[in-house]
Amino acid sequence: MSSVEQIQQSKIIRILRNNESLIITVLLALLVLVRLWLITGVPKMFLSNWHDDLYYAQAAHHILHGEWLGPYSQMTVIKAPFYAFFLVFSSFTGLPLLLNETAFFALACLVLFFALKPWIKNPWWRLLLFGLLLYCPPSLNNEWTLRVYREFVYLSLSLFVVAFAIGFLLRLEGKLSKLITWSIGLGISMGAFMITREEGIWIYPMLFLFMLFCIIYIFKKKLGRKVLRCFSVILPVLLWYIPVLVVSILNFSHYGYWGISETLDNDFNRVLNTLQRVDTEIRHPYQSVSEDVLQKAGEVSPLFAELLPSIDQYKTEWQKSSNEAVLIKPQWYLDQYFDPSNADIGNTHFFWMLRDAMQAAGKYSSGKYPVEYINAMADQLENACDQGLLNCKTAINIPLIGSISQEQIPLTLRFFADDLYRMLTLDGVAVKMLLFDMSSWTYYRSEFVYYEEFVNNPIDSHLMGEEMADSRMIDSHRDARFNWLLIKSGILKNIRALYKFIYLPLAILTVLAWLCLLVLRLARKDLNISPLPLASTLFVFGLFISRLAVLAILDATTNIPAFYYSNTCHIFLIVFIMLSLWTLLTQPFFKKKVGAQKNTSEKLPG
Question: Counting beta carbons within 10 angstroms of the beta carbon of residue 549, is it exposed (0 to 12), middle (13 to 18) or buried (19 or more)?
């Protein structure tokens, strides 16, 4: 290379360095714009699922018109309401719902980009993480993102929690004003997180350890203004309970129930847990309440006996839905446990059937939650177990999950390993384009007007289905909107194929290398590891394990394929992989020689 070429090259490098911030900003904007373009024109799927999609559309309708969650029945307070709030907000913007949900997710990715700045000062690495998250397969066009359901928003909220928590942790030694800002962000995101899904408490153990570490670190490092810094650690807890408190007050004032969802009611879960503990000769892991159990419970509990005629009324309908859910589970599970001739209902669907039976028996007719009735029925069943009138097993009782017996523990471990492998191979995360991959949803029902009030689909829902796309011709040419969707579908499927190619080997190699680094450092008593970055990485890894463990328990104890709710696990894993790789790049496996230049890439501002 000539001297002139070298001078020109150095000038280009100097220009790029001087304009690095502008270049990064432009690239961030381009990544977001392309991501939004890929979902423009894609319609949302309308399903007549009264307990899921349609529930949120109707709840949003009532909220928008000042009726809280609407007229009271067994269906009114079955879900945490944040997604209904999101539907109302989306309607206010006038933009398509999928566009708003994708923009919400992109904002969460952007928050993480800035959250990591004190540790990862290299913006290109943070840009890479931003892009990997923004285009990760669980956030692309799949069944969960195309449905009018809470999973995509829950995915974003999980990332918001991670981003604000890491941003807070990495600024523990920084200015108090910035620390408070990230603390407020964590509190607000956790508040929304807690009123989005009912099982949000799975995140509590890692958050407790996170806060405990922060307080210990503040005192150990003897940071200034300790009291205010410790208050900033506790502040998110105070903030995230405000939405929970507000929703509980509204539910109590309208329906006499205190809480965000009746599915979390302690007494109702006592009824379910006791029924699942009753011993019976024929027991499948997901069918704890057999016909024999129902009859025995009716003999010892007059209040439960009142529901038996209504249970018989709804049993056939719910048994069909129960079997449809079980058939989505892995083949090894079906071969061992599924018996289509068994008329018993899976644990999850029994939960909903019991509520329908209570409605049919008039228990909700007063317009208020039947607290006294459910409490008395739970007492009757528990007393029957205690007095030996029912032969009940000892079990661990968990709300929404039920009773976990000793026999289900090995099955939980099997599901944990199986779900982990299926997740790493992107099983169940297929890219779909509604008009071409969901032709079975072409029917239209009158209740879909609730969707149309909020969704703002770019293509009319009546046109859904491949056969409709082929028949939509303009001057012998297919409607251009459908052609664009085919092009975008091909791009998204190629993105997923790329992730599938690198995901499994990258995850395995990164985790092993990261663990080796920690073990070697500890073995050599070389503890020169930045504590805040290490804590951030462990926090994300802990969230990944906790969420996957909860889903494994659900898989082992219920008839629902809980693995398909593992989208948040992908987010945690991608963040963990990128943080671990950065650690491996900047932290040598062995301590540097004395006098060597000290690596300052992980220094945090004091």
Answer: middle
